[in-house]
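Subject: sequence -> structure tokens, single chain

Hey, anyone have a minute? Need the predicted structure for the following. Not urgent.
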Amino acid sequence: MITNNAINSMVIIGNGLTAWTVALAIAHRFKDNLKVTIVELNNDSYELPWLLPQGVAFHSLLGIDERDLMRATDATFSLGTQYQGGSKLEHNFFMPYGSHGSSIDFVDFHHYYLKNQMQENTNSDQCHEKYQDYSFSAKAALKGKFIHPQNRSQSLLSTLNYSINVDPTKYKQFIIERAREGGVTSQIGIPNKVNVCNESADILSITMNNDTVVEGDFFIDCSGHEAFLIEKAMNIGYQDWSQWLPYDKGVISKSEKDNSSPFTQIIANEETFLRKTSTRTASFSEITFDSKNTRFEDVTLNNFDLKESHSFDIKAGQRVTHWHKNCISFGKAVVDFPSLGISEIQVVQESVMRFLELFPTKCNSELLAKEYNRLTELRMKNLRDFQIELSILSHCPKPGPEILDLDDYPPSVQGDFELFKYYGKFPYKEEVIFKHSDLVCLFMGFNYIPKNYDCLLDKYNFSELKKQYELMKESIEYTVEQLPSHDEYLKDGLDG
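Reply:
Had a minute. Here:
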């Protein structure tokens, strides 16, 4: 017999961008068939959204018009990230959202590049500069050019991928307005007690300090580090990653616009990571550091106007379980990390879409929760590994294959370094945010060069391959010059 076990009401606890993003996604999915209520805490945090191309897809799935969003948030386009790192900032390379070169049947492009470098006996310290010559996105970004990708076969414009940089305050307000338009309601108060069923251990309701009782079929914890539901009520523990990612403090600052380049910058030195983005009207900086070894005053003195800054704590790690009983958590309540390669809101967007795919019922959701936890915990560990590898590479003066001591790092990180060191490949992993091509760009950009290229490449006529790729480089240079500037494209598209 089929029974109606549909969830009718959801309660979200939290007041930041995370809570409203989750509310908007759920409300859009169910329209008027599900009541969504936010209990707004008085612990709102300021965060600097950094959206990958998946964020563009997220907005599209929610029916958000990109031009409306960009106008409302003073947004600019981004084609990737420029990295500078090392003890003397000697590494400078670009990680595009688009591709490098093109694959040769079963052989990835970078193996051609490696073989070509070996044949020409080129100084490997400069290889990252030439490697980005084969990326249309990288060359366009560094020339200050932009155009939307175009779905035309064999066109360089089809290789572009992009994201957007938004004003944090205006972006949050935009999401809140859309959520309210979608039927999300909210009430401000201080939760006093979480009422849990003695038999099922499910949450029944939340009692507020004014004795108001907020009931729901399902509860979502977006309360940040407070973890009011998932930790305090459900007693779910936390996996600590700080031994590999010791950065525990961050500061975000807003200043006058200094440029509108279509990319994000990450600058790493021995003590800190500095991330910089720009909108149409302002520039934003976020610096993360280890407060046990670096003083707040030292990292902020030359980087910020402290009148326009917001500080925050980082607790690198993730919950042992993300979804327990009728409670799921998003954002810092469940996972936290320094934003070295991705920001919190990007993870939230991806996680809530997975939650909607595995949406619970009033009962018997254990298998759904199990699968959600399996996939999400694995994805977060892969993200952790990327952050660790970026930290290792950027903070080692000469991170060559023979120098790094990786004994104290997770086996998965050791495996990435070892397989790339000898074969120029990475292990296959389920649930990755950053593709193999991103890792190749990262490792080679920091001069971690493999000892060998793929021997399958020797079955091809290398002289012919070289001619083809030289023509590709010339085509990239020519096509980039024809593109409009980023500023022109923004003005024509948003103001025209």
